[in-house]
Amino acid sequence: MSAQIFETDVAHPHLARLIAELDAYQYPLYPPESFYGVNITELDEGDITCFMARVDDDWAGCACLYISKHRIAEMKRVYVNPLFRGQGIASLLIAAMEKKLKELGHTDLYLETGVFQEKAITLYEKLGYARTDAFGDYNQSPDPLSVYMMKTVA
């Protein structure tokens, strides 16, 4: 069983379900002031492209590339349903984002994740992302429960 990656927008009918699953997983891990699970439909001051992974008839995961009005490219809402983990789906979603990033003429891709998401941090490091300082809007109030990462995509 292999995953197919599709580029879509925030209106995809299965995207909201996957993001709700992600929120249900993340929300208990952090206090409310450290929960940065933004509603992607409200990111209206920039450009957003979403990617979805499909395995057979199931929507298995998602990820979104957000380019802010300040032209900072950020990876958002990366999630793979637990039934499909360990199959490389997150890596495929991130590769699709990186490809799109290059098509749009950007080179640096940032992300924010939480300190309690060790497997995600390990994956990002394996894919070449390195820890960095807070960026963009996170600069206003860096969170000690956040990990900020960046990769230059060549």
TrEMBL record:
Pfam families, sorted: Acetyltransf_1
Domain of life the protein comes from: Bacteria
Keyword Acyltransferase: yes
Keywords carried by this UniProt record: Acyltransferase, Transferase
Segments forming domain N-acetyltransferase: 6-154
Organism: Rahnella inusitata
Protein name per the record: GNAT family N-acetyltransferase
InterPro entries from the UniProt entry: Acyl_CoA_acyltransferase (IPR016181), Bact_Acetyltransf (IPR050832), GNAT_dom (IPR000182)
